[in-house]
Structure formats: C-alpha cells, structure tokens
Amino acid sequence: MAAAGAGADALPSCPNTALYVRLPNWVGDVCMSLPSLEALLDTGLPVIACARPWARDLLAAYPLAGFIPMTGGWRADRAAVRNVRRQAPTGRRPLGLLLPDSLSSALVFRFAGIPCAGYRDDGRSLILRWPCAKPAGPLHAVQSWYHLTRHALAQWRLAEPAPQPADELCWRAAVAHEDEASRALSQAGLASGGFVLIAPTATGLHKGRVKVWPGFDSLTRSLQARGLTVAMAPPEAERQAARETAPTALLLPPLGLGAFATLTRRAALVICNDSGVSHLGAAAQARQITLFGVTDPTRTGPWSNRAVRMGRMGAWPAAAEVLSAALEILDTSPAA
Fold first, then answer.
1. Domains defined for the chain, CATH in brackets
2. Any residues with CB less than 8 A from the CB of 76 and at least 6 apart, and which?
3. pLDDT computed for residue 269 by the predictor
4. How crowded is residue 97: how many other Cβ atoms within 10 Å of its Cβ?
5. Model pTM?
6. 5 Rama sector, left if φ>0, alpha if ψ -120 to 50, beta otherwise
7. Strands 196-199 and 230-232: what pairing?
8. What is the pLDDT of residues 282-293, one digit of tens each?
9. Is the Cβ–Cβ distance between 168 and 303 less than 8 Å?
C-alpha cells in the first residue's frame, strides 16, 4: 500500500533508484542541510549531490555517488544534470529532492527528467511531483530542510530518519582537510588549542544592513593584551576587508572550505559574525561565539550546543560583553 498522501507515484525502495539532491547555494546553508544529506545517504541508495562547485571540497569525505557542479544558470545546470543521467546505468530511476525554494532549481530537475519533491513556493507547485507544504510554525533552517527530506522519503517509501534532527551538526572531515589545516598551523607556529580564531568579515548585506560586528579590532587588541594569539584565515576576496577590520590579528593563508572547517575545531575559540563561518564552526563542532545584530538567531543561528549567541536582530552586543564571554569560555574550556 502506498504511503499516506503518496499517490500512484510512490514506489518501494529498490536498487535501481538513485537520489538527486539539489543543495542550497550558500556555505552556511549547505552546512545546515547536512542532516538532510545524511538521511538520504542512510537509505543505502546512490546519492548524487547537485551544488555549487565549492561544495565538492566541503563534502569530500561523504560517500556520494556523484557530484554535479551548479552554476546558477538553469539551462547550463539542466544540461549538466541531464548529461550525468545519460551516463547512469540503464533502468535506474531518478528521484529528486530540491532544498532551495527557487523556480529555477525545479526547472533544472524537471527538464532533466527527474521527478522531484520540494516545498510549494515561487509558483512551482505544478512542476513538483511531490510538493510539500511549509510547516505553519517558524522553524530553524536545519529543521525546515529536515522536515522536507522526511516528507520526500515518506513519499518514496524509503526509510525515514528520526522525527527531529540531532541537536548538533556532525560534519565529516577528510584526511586532506586535516593535513591542510595542520600545515597552516605549523607554518604559522601555532598549536591546536593555542589560538583564538576570528572571522571579522561577512559578504553582502541583510536588508540593506552590514552584517559585520563593529568591535573586532577592540576585541582583538584586548585579547592580545592578555597574551592570547588571535588569528584569522579569510578567503582571498575578503583578506583586505579582514585586515582593515582587525589589523593586528595574525593573518593565515586562505584555506579550502574543508580545511577551514577543520581549523575552527582546532581553535580554542571561534568568534564570528552570523555568516558561513558560524555554520562551518557548528558543523565541525567548534567552540564559538556568534555575533548577531541584523539577523535572527532563531532562524539562522549555529545549530550547535557549543555555540554562544550574543546580540539580537537590531542590537549588536557591546565589545566588553563579548570580551567577558570569550574569557570565560577560554578559562573553562580545555584545549583542543
């Protein structure tokens, strides 16, 4: 019997099924979708991730059956997905899960011949084979994508995960990530647990407002005055902004996403804006302070029990408050 609400399109699990998942477009969002990706992998079926090119490195340790880089142009992305489908074993049925809400992501899978599940949004309900209504109550992004994933697995009559995601992310690091982080620390003369990692940049605006906490310079100097090493490793495009925001911090070379996530776990403490770094740290289970001033902690805060959230939408925390919280964590947390 088909699962409730599944209709004639529901199908039993079979070895000739492959799962295609369109991951979100932002670093932090990919981190927050990891419980959903794990749920798909737990089915034992081949999982092909469709995501921005940088996500390949972040997901290097995951046993994916394939990775299709997405450019954001729906025609090019459709061609890329269709090409991979043509190379798949004959008779393998594709099923798609769309985590982004966009119409373009639905068009890519539809015209690549992949029936898909996704949230009803952006006028795309008629394109989706298994549309899902968004929950009535506000959910954190981790919970929202996990809810959608459980919906899809139920419609496909595949094994469903637990009703709620675990209360922490658990990203898988590759050996290459560990090695790259170790080299960066060695070259800088740093030891694991012997430095505070700051991330004093955040790209873009949120509703026209800058997402960067204004106290990084003051905080860095206060920590240094207490004999603490403060380091940062921004991507190449953000290095100048990082220098201007925290000019006395030790500047490490840019790292790949996986190596940077590993670096957050090696730090005694990570202090960052509500940005991709916050979610990379949460995924790597780093100790961190995430600073809020223009975004909502309940929706996009780090999904971690090791994170301290300071500030709120419309009110940045004071530098003295952040310094006090940082010193308390450093005094009570063992070295990594």
1. 7-155 (3.40.50.2000), 175-332 (3.40.50.2000)
2. none
3. 98
4. 28
5. 0.92
6. left
7. parallel
8. 999 999 999 999
9. yes
